[in-house]
Amino acid sequence: MARPVIGIIGNHHLINDEYPAQAVGVMNVSVVAEVCDAVPVVLPANPAHVSVEDALSVCNGFILPGGRPNVHPEEYGHEETEAHGAFDRDRDRLVLPLIREAVARGVPVLGLCRGFQEMAVAFGSTLHPEIRDLPGRMNHRMPPDGTLEEKFELRHWVTLNPGGRFARLFGADEVFTNTLHGQGIEEAGARVVVDGRAPDGTAEAIYIEGAPGFAMGVQWHPEWNAAADPVSRPLFEAFGRAAAGLRRAA
To answer: What CDD domains does the entry give (predicted)?
Structure first.
């Protein structure tokens, strides 16, 4: 039987600082093909090119990867400030309604870093613009220097709710992860269940309550070294199985 098709949301990017492109990191493509056992398809993050219905008609699941621009605070009722950083309004306009519709239809969704924040905002959460400025919080941002290996190295523990969805998935109540983000959940929406936290209390793992299908997100970047990582691999395998199950049912 043909493998499921996983849509990976692209990011606006300038090649050589002048040529517009939609880009997806190779590690996201590789993890879909090699760990999810699915066909990766890059979806341009622009509703002028891809509609929600287009995406749902083609894909059996969606990965919402990280990206440098942040979700615009207008999407969760806050005023824009300098601390909120750069934005990609086209991605906001496509992905937020896509998340809600995919979840409603039971189409698997997995959010990674910015994608985690998109899932949270899509279901009523608000975000801190810069969590390292909050009292008692650590700096979760990517180290400014070093190799990719050093930037993506595992840096802190995430404590999972005992017996929760992530604890059952990983077979453990604690996992060790990388951290490369500036924003974080302020107030979780009514259906957004925080199922894991960093040592400073920052939300790191969520799922959508009442979703008929796979609807989970992590604030870290599990796509790094996913095939060999004991935390990343079961997450992507579970997502891949959910997408395969949807394809079989179609």
So the answer is: GATase1_2 (cd01745)
Ramachandran category for residue 37: left, alpha or beta (phi over 0 → left; psi -120 to 50 → alpha): left
Q: Which of 220, 219, 203 is nearest to 151 (CA)?
A: 220
* pLDDT tens-digit readout, 121-149: 999 999 999 888 889 898 888 887 888 89
- 19: domain CATH number is 3.40.50.880
* Active-site residue flag, 59: no
**pLDDT > 80? residue 250:** no
Which residue of the set 128, 140, 181, 221 is catalytic? 221
Q: Number of structural domains, the chain?
A: 1
Position 1 scores a pLDDT of 67
Strands in 215-218's sheet, in edge-to-edge order, are: 39-43, 5-9, 61-64, 109-112, 215-218, 203-208, 192-197, 156-160, 174-177
59, 84, 113, 130: the catalytic one is 113
Per-residue pLDDT at 44 exceeds 80: yes
Q: Examine the residue annotation and report whether 221 is marked as an active-site residue of this protein.
A: yes
In the numeric block, which tokens belong to residue 147? Answer: 């190799």
Q: Which residue out of 118, 130, 204, 223 is catalytically annotated?
A: 223
Q: What is the model's pTM?
A: 0.96
Task: Report the percent of the chain where pLDDT is more than 90.
Answer: 79
Query: What is the extent of the structural domain holding 206?
Result: 5-249
